[in-house]
Amino acid sequence: MDNTTKSLTGIALQKFKKNFWGVFSFWFIVLLIFISLFAYVLTPDHSENANQMHLSIHSKSPGFEVEMLAIPLNANEEVKLSYYFFGFPNNTTEIPITNYQIKNQKLTYTEYSDNRSLAQTKELGLDKFSGYTSMNEVVKKNIEKQKFYLGTDKYGRDLLSRMIIGSRISLSIGFIAVFISLIVGIFFGALGGYFGGKTDAFVMWLVNIIWSIPTLLLVIAITLTLGKGFWQVFVAVGLTMWVEVARVVRGQVISLKEMQYITAAKALGFGHFRIIFNHILPNIMAPVIVISAANFASAILVESGLSFLGLGAQPPIPSWGGMIKDHYSYIILGKPYLAVVPGLAIMFLTLAFMMVGNALRDALDVKS
């Protein structure tokens, strides 16, 4: 079929599919979104924020294995559907052990320690495990070998679980910050470009003021004003990224408002806001989509920087920037992977959004 008979959307989609790295990056992002949505189903550590600490096995290398004794704290609590999306309550005490034995219906175990001479041997009775009739059943259900595929952090938490759950922060900051920037940027850009005059002068004055302040400094100021926290960071980043959207929208509106179909809409008596939202904005979405993809990458980097400075998501919520902050000193202590792994995750996710943005730019370019 000839391209002339296809819609512009179909032509753009066909061009996007021909860009290998754009398509690859798109599916990489989709896969990461799926993983982050079902993070607590996929992670080895199902506790809320993957915050199960084992100080005796801190900073272990990838692939480290140890036998784990789980002592239930509240075995009768009902499992809720929300736990699969927001984490399970910590209903067990996990103890890394090196060996154990059963004698007279009592469990004797030796806690894990790098220094064998300091390892403690303790004893538990059957009364600590409600619902079990024999210690052999306890051992079968509550002792298993646990493997840490990416090792453990400095608090003995599973690094893989923290990485998977930390992806939620990066993706959330991208979606929410870009959404806020689109709402604010399109509103001010459309008003300035369409009405011109003093309205446009005010919008450009506001844009130039925001633009003249370093982004990270402005985000820090807004964060300190709103307070440290999860949602405060999203709002702060979104309120600093709208200026780029506003400039693009303003330029596009200025070029379109003189078109004949806009003049015809005015002659028919259509209201200004109907013309803006029904006739102008739908025709300028291509550059807005492209800049939104770039803003996704920028938002992820800004959030990572804020978390590194201690102004992002607060512990125990895992974030990739916070994980770098906690472990950057380990780069010179012989365990650089503790900081390199989250750093690579930030790099690959940012690169994926940039590649998608470049592919969208090429696909939506009517001249190509």
Quick description:
With 368 residues, this protein is α+β, with helices and mostly antiparallel strands. It has two domains: 98 residues, no CATH class; 206 residues, MetI-like fold (Orthogonal Bundle), CATH 1.10.3720. The protein is built from 14 helices and five strands.
Task: Walk me through the structure.
With 368 residues, the protein is of the alpha+beta class. It folds into two domains: 51-148, no CATH class; 159-364, MetI-like fold (Orthogonal Bundle), CATH 1.10.3720.10. 58% of the residues lie in helices and 10% in strands. It has 14 helices and five strands. The protein has a five-stranded antiparallel sheet. α6 (159-195) runs parallel beside α9 (230-256). The chain starts with 7 loop residues before the first helix and ends with a helix. Residues 1-5 have low confidence and may be disordered.
- CATH class label of the largest domain: Mainly Alpha
How would you spell out the order of helices and strands?
Answer: HHHEHEEEHEHHHHHHHHH
Strand content: 5-15%
Share of helical residues? 55-70%
Give the helix tally: 14
Rounded Rg: 27 Å
What distance lies between the first and last C-alpha atoms, to the nearest angstrom? 19 Å
Shape: elongated
Question: What is the arithmetic mean of pLDDT?
Answer: 87
Low-confidence stretches: 1-5
Number of domains: 2
* Class by SSE composition: alpha+beta
Quantity of strands, as a count: 5
Named at the architecture level, the CATH assignment of the largest domain is: Orthogonal Bundle
| Main sheet properties | 5 strands, antiparallel
What is the topology, as strand order, of the major beta sheet? 4-3-2-1-5
Question: How would you name the oligomeric state of the polypeptide chains in this document?
Answer: single chain
At the fold tier of CATH, the topology name of the largest domain is MetI-like fold
CATH superfamily (homologous) name of the largest domain: MetI-like
